[in-house]
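Shipment paperwork, digital attachment
Item: protein structure file
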Amino acid sequence: MAEIVLSKGVDYTTTPPRSVCSESCSPGTRVARIKGQPICCFDCIACSEGEISNETDSTECTSCPEDFWSNPQRDHCVPKSIEFLSYHEALGISLTTISLLGTFICAIVLGIFVYHQETPMVRANNSELSFLLLLSLKLCFMCSLLFIGRPRLWTCQLRHAIFGISFVLCVSCILVKTMVVLAVFKASKPGGADIMKFFGAIQQRGTVMVLTSIQAIICTAWLVSASPTPHKNTQYHSDKVVYECDVGSTVGFAVLLGYIGLLALLSFVLAFMARNLPDNFNEAKLITFSMLIFCAVWIAFIPAYISSPGKYADVVEVFAILASSFGILVALFGPKCYTIILKPERNTKKSIMGRGATMS
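Attachment content:
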């Protein structure tokens, strides 16, 4: 039986005696009856995470709404913290800075090529495709900014579409440049004069546009059938809401990446075949190296992306975009800018053809 404590001077006809078997349970806890004991004997058990009680001697805890979580005292619900790759955190600031730096470098290289477009170094490396390639690289750097900031419907829909089209435009230019390198060498051999009529300026532009249009069709079909949308994910962290873009169709995303990979692999194979051509056609060596970097980055991206939760999946994708873009920019245009700016004596037709003769 519970012990009853009687105090002197208290009128127990109007005031009931107080049980000292158990004290009242404060907010944040619930009453748990003790089996075999009187009803006034109970334990006070703290509410679980995500549950609260805001009354004394509550018999049960109440779950917080989906976007709320219990405070440390478990006596009221507070909004869950929100997580996404923000422009205001160190990681977002770093990626934004690198993206803008890459865009700025592309603009400088484009300016150098435009200013020196009549020189043998620029003309020998298909200046029109080089200009288009630099513009596509600028788009690649800038599209990474769509992955930073709170996901919204328009950013979720545009980020992968612009990313896919920009990279296909970039890789298509490289592929056509590689094909032209092989065609020029074939044309220099006996009986190969007619081959260049299939690789004129119009045919080059047309090939780039057709290859890019295929990616545009893939992106359009993806957006129409299963468009990416913003998604509030509460599975990664119980006390956080992770804002992310649901890709909608995994097949659509896989086809987009697969098409880019197919063009990159084809460019690499053709450039590898042409790597030992004479030096006046040696852009194939640079293309081989740039495509090797590109393929290595995106092969490493797939497992890293799948295993990265929440905002870190966006970080991995942005890093892959920036790394592959810088790889192409430095590998293809670094040696040319070095020659144009620091070694102008080598930027002559005689010098280029002389090195080619030496290599032949």
